[in-house]
Amino acid sequence: MCSDNPDYSHLPSAKHITQVLAQGSGVVTSINAMTMAEVNLALGAGRNRAGDPINFSVGIVLHKVVGEKVGKGEAWAEIHHDNPLPNSLLNNMQEALKLDSSIDPFNMPSLVVSRVS
């Protein structure tokens, strides 16, 4: 998350919110961004072709990021959707999360080396 208290009030609200629960416990070592992009596209948050409509009410909110600990059954993300959520999309999201129960939580190093002004 970019903020501890994100303000989504300027966006339309989805009809449904489905929590994505961790299937195990451990430290998040990766979240497959391509999988999440494909889920978003299937929800209508993106375009297959120029001119396709975009549904601004749907998408994914992450509650956990790489380096954070998550417990089994804990929501690590939520999917905002307007239509019934196919099990295949929820399964894809669950498979996007990789956990390691043998390591301690850690802070990801910044990908920004320096800022040029």
Automatic annotation (TrEMBL):
Fetch the PANTHER family from UniProt.
THYMIDINE PHOSPHORYLASE
- Write out the GO cellular component annotations: cytosol
SUPFAM superfamilies for this protein: Pyrimidine nucleoside phosphorylase C-terminal domain
The organism's taxonomy opens as:
Eukaryota, Metazoa, Ecdysozoa, Arthropoda, Crustacea
Keyword Chloroplast tagged:
no
Q: From its record, what is one biological process in GO terms?
A: pyrimidine nucleoside metabolic process
Q: Which UniProt keywords apply?
A: Transferase
Q: Which InterPro entries match?
A: PYNP-like_C_sf, PYNP_C, Thymidine/pyrmidine_PPase
Molecular function (GO) terms for this protein are: 1,4-alpha-oligoglucan phosphorylase activity; pentosyltransferase activity
Q: What is this protein called?
A: Pyrimidine nucleoside phosphorylase C-terminal domain-containing protein
Domain Pyrimidine nucleoside phosphorylase C-terminal span(s) in chain numbering: 27-100
